Amino acid sequence: MSERSEADAHGHVAVDVTTLDAELIEGPSVATSDVAEYALWLGDDSLILAQQLGAWISRAPELEEDVALGNIGLDLIGHARSLLHYAGTASNRTEDDLAYWRTEPDFRSLHIVEQPNGDFAHTIARQFIVAHYLFELYSRLRASADATFAAIAAKAVKEVDYHRDHGVQWVLRLAHGTDESRRRMITALSDLWPYVEEIFRDDPLIDRLEGIAVRPSSLRPAFDEAIAPVLTEAELDIPRGFVASGGGRTGKHSEHLAFLLAEMQVLTRAHPGASW
Amino acid sequence: MVTVERRAAEVREALARPRPLDAASQAAWAIAAQVVDPEIPVLTIEDLGVLRSVTVTGDAVADCAVTVTLTPTYSGCPAMDAMRADVLEALTCAGYENVSVSLVLSPAWTTDWMSEIGQNKLREYGIAAPTGHATVRGSGPIRLKMAVKCPRCSSLNTRELAHFGSTSCKSLYECRDCLEPFDYFKVL
């Protein structure tokens, strides 16, 4: 689709000989507690964001957008399943145990993903920020010394690349649309921006996972560099103002997450073991 | 003389369809290879490059153990569960009693693995095949796109209607000549 690099001349993909069995809990890859904690960080971000996007289905401004946000959510659910499955290997829990039977202090997701869907511009601002972060994250996590993270990242990076493009197109379209769409885009960006800093904050866990995890602060320059030309083209300024306290990585959340979890978990909790 | 292009195509084919070398595993591969994608029933999992390995250990069909690995197209593709169940059923129906099917994520699936036969079947079915090869682009919003050919009239005068389509792997296009909308299997 886009430019082809030199490495593609003989057929493209780097082949990883590791065969990862992501599905079997008895499989060779069992996470240590630190690795599991990091897997929860990333898995919870994807899970919560996917749950939020699902709420747009049948409510987006146009049918194509119902489909788009639904499909992005589906990719994110895929990433969350792999990551939570891996996290669960450390404590003998399944991905469903982790998704449905934890309460909010046990979730490790960032505050930005629990911010309400708001109007469509808020959802787009959140997507624009998170998809750019995830793209930089997974680009680097492909080189993780942990084969499971590397495999999940190599797959996810191609998908979030597409999500990133979706966010860019909509930021431009809303910013250059009507006065109303522009006003909403500006408001949404300034409402979401306080939550950007937490994304790139380091934590002692990262020091213990050198070579395995990606240091969040190391992603900030690439993130800024990637979004700057889009904001310039959209004639939007990077909002200034307060920085939200954050704390998602240690289980401190805003009131939004509890309501979100209540909706996400109600069926499983009302009917334990239900399947369909 | 084998040209560089020919050799590259062979390497690509070996990556896309890593067929087993022993006869027993080959027989089981041939059965698993007939399972189709439930969303795009003209494509087999072999055409897609989703079938990654088939290994048979033991002699008689009933006694041996068959291990099959599949790779998901997209991380969240709901069709994977169906493909997995269908592979299990196909091999069980063929008399294999001890069958296990697992998913692998690495190496990550790419549309580059779709066979030429698969691409042709896709076009006949009315879905435009992936145009070009997969790359992950660097930073910056600029992306050069190759024209997507209309599967109905072969016109290159087409446009994207929606970035996302009826399944994760497709986007929605429209032909400006024959005016028909069509699905495009996007490059991944």
Question: How would you characterize this protein structure?
Answer:
- The complex is a heterodimer of chains A (276) and B (188).
- Chain A is an all-alpha fold.
- Chain A has helices at 33-54, 63-88, 95-100, 111-114, 120-141, 147-175, 179-192, 196-199, 204-208, 220-233, 255-270.
- In chain A, helix 1 packs antiparallel against helix 2.
- Residues 1-28 of chain A have low confidence and may be disordered.
- Chain B contains five helices and seven strands; from the N terminus they run αααββαβαββββ.
- Chain B has helices spanning 4-16, 23-32, 45-48, 79-93, 116-125, and strands at residues 51-57, 65-70, 98-103, 127-128, 158-162, 170-175, 181-185.
- In chain B, the strands form two sheets. Chain B has a four-stranded mixed beta sheet. Chain B has a three-stranded mixed beta sheet with strand order 1-2-3.
- Chain B is elongated and about 60 Å long.
- The model of chain B has no long low-confidence stretch (mean pLDDT 89).
- Chains A and B meet through helix 2, helix 6 and helix 10 of A and helix 1 of B.
